[in-house]
From TrEMBL:
Belongs to the carbohydrate kinase PfkB family. GO terms for molecular function: 2-dehydro-3-deoxygluconokinase activity. It is an enzyme of class 2 (transferase). Keywords: Kinase, Transferase. Gene3D superfamilies: 3.40.1190.20. Its EC number is 2.7.1.45. The keyword Plastid does not apply. Pfam families: PfkB (PF00294). Residues 7-242 form the Carbohydrate kinase PfkB domain. It comes from uncultured Armatimonadetes bacterium. It comes from the Bacteria. This is 2-dehydro-3-deoxygluconokinase. The lineage of its organism: Bacteria, Bacillati, Armatimonadota, environmental samples. The keyword Kinase applies.
Length: 251
């Protein structure tokens, strides 16, 4: 049977709590609640474009977890692969966003340690799940969450390649989660297996020493080092580029 999913991705999605307007957290009597996560954001964007996207994670089997699942499903994301966590202490990661008013900057406070998603294991991504997709998308955030998440990410990439699936990886380096040295050491063997590498130019320089005068030099250095078919480099206010070897497309 052909796959029922075009793109599968997995990782942590958290609850984002924000005081109304420009209020301070310490002054707030109420918070707006949204869901946010790098991988699930990709799934939502794809689903809204008509792509069959599936998001997998571990969530507590309670109202917090169902809030995340319901929000993603409302955008058309397939959430049938969620692993529901009934263990004592199961939780959803939370972060608070306090919008600033100059000269006070916007402040973000994370409370994600020990979340259910941080306990993802290779067993949460069985071969049958990966076989039922055409493409696997992973990020550098998930393996930064825990040793078991790193194992799950490596397992997913290896299995997808063995099943002849295409794979993309977004470096998405988060200094709050791990060091540049650990990130580079963990991600390098995964990047060697992917078809599409996505990275900010600054992350490529910091983690892999991919430097140069412009984004094309960065992408060229990454393609040469890792043998990746295509590299997308984001350049902040200068936009982004896609280097497919024979052609470079600027956006």
């Amino acid at each position: 049977m052909p796959p029922t999913c075009d793109v599968l991705t997995f990782g942590e999605t958290m609850l984002r709590l924000s005081p109304p307007g420009r209020a301070r957290i310490e002054q707030a009597d109420a918070f707006a609640v949204h869901v946010a996560g790098s991988e699930s954001n990709v799934a939502v964007a794809l689903a809204r474009m008509g792509v069959r996207a599936r998001w997998v994670s571990r969530l507590p089997d309670d109202g917090r977890g169902r809030r995340v699942a319901r929000s993603l499903a409302a955008h058309g994301v397939d959430v049938s692969g969620i692993r529901w966590d009934a263990e004592p202490g199961a939780r959803v990661g939370v972060f608070f966003v306090e919008h600033g008013t100059p000269p006070r900057p916007t402040t973000v406070v994370y409370d994600r340690a020990g979340s259910s998603a941080s306990r993802l294991t290779p067993g949460d991504l069985p071969e049958s799940l990966l076989a039922d997709c055409r493409h696997l998308h992973v990020t550098g955030i998930t393996p930064a969450l825990s040793a078991s998440c790193a194992e799950a990410t490596a397992h997913a990439v290896r299995t997808a390649r063995r099943l002849n699936k295409t794979v993309s990886l977004d470096v998405n380096f988060r200094a709050r989660l791990w060091s540049a040295e650990t990130a580079a050491r963990t991600l390098a063997p995964l990047i060697e297996r992917v078809d599409l590498l996505i990275t900010a130019a600054d992350d490529a320089r910091l983690l892999f020493g991919a430097d140069g005068g412009d984004g094309a030099a960065v992408s060229g250095a990454l393609r040469a080092r890792f043998g990746v078919s295509a590299v997308a480099v984001t350049l902040g206010g200068e936009g982004a580029l896609l280097d497919a070897g024979n052609t470079i497309t600027w956006v």
